[in-house]
Amino acid sequence: MSNRARPLRRDAVENRRKLIDAAEAVFASRGLDVPLEEIAKRAGVSIGTLYNNFATREALLDEVMPAKVLALRELAESALSCADPWRGFVAYVMGACERQAADRGLNDILSRRYPDAQVASRACASGFAQVGDIIERAHRSGQLRADFTLIDFAYIIWSAARIIDATRDAAPDSWRRHVHFLLDGLQASAATAVEQPPMTSEQLVRAMGAPGPG
Predict the structure, then answer these.
(1) Domains of the chain by range and CATH?
(2) Averages of pLDDT over each 10 residues, the chain, 214 residues
C-alpha cells in the first residue's frame, strides 16, 4: 500500500480555495480576530469544513498572511534603489503605513504577535530585517538621526497601527499627520540627545503581546 497522500477531491480543492479567498477578504476588512464562522459563511461552507482544512486560526493565518507581508519587499526594494536614502526611507515608512491603513489584517500582523503562526511570523521577521538595510543606508548618508534603531522603527508601525484602528471610521487619514511629524523629528538635523534607550527585542516582544480570540 502506498504511503503517498491521496490528492484532494475536486470539491475539496474548491472548498479550500473558497476559504482562502474568503479569509483574505474578511481579514482585510475586519482584522485577524474576526470569528472564523464569518469566514466559513462568506466561503459558503460549514465551520466544520473550515476546521478540516485549517485546524486553527494560526494555520489559516499562515496560509493567507505571508504573501501580504512579503509584498512589502517590493516597497523595500524601491526604497533601497532610491537615489536619495532619506527619500527612500520616508517612502518606505509612508508606503508601509498606507498598506496597513488599507488592510486591517496586515495592520494586525505587523503590530502584534502571533507566535503559533510560524510561517507568517517568519515573513514578518524577514521583512523587518530588510528594513534594517533601509535604515543603515539612511544612517550612512547622514540624513537619519544616528540613534534611530530597528526597534524604533517598530514603534512607528506600532503607533500608526493604533491610530489607524482608532480613527478608521471618524478620520481614516489621521495617521498621516502623526507619521509626518515623526519623520520630521527623525532627520539628523533635528536630532537632540535622548536619555531613554530603545527597548530590547525581548521587551518589544512582550509589549506587543498576544492576540485575543483563539
Answers:
(1) 10-55 (1.10.10.60), 67-208 (1.10.357)
(2) 57 94 97 97 97 96 94 94 98 96 95 90 88 97 96 92 93 95 94 90 77 46
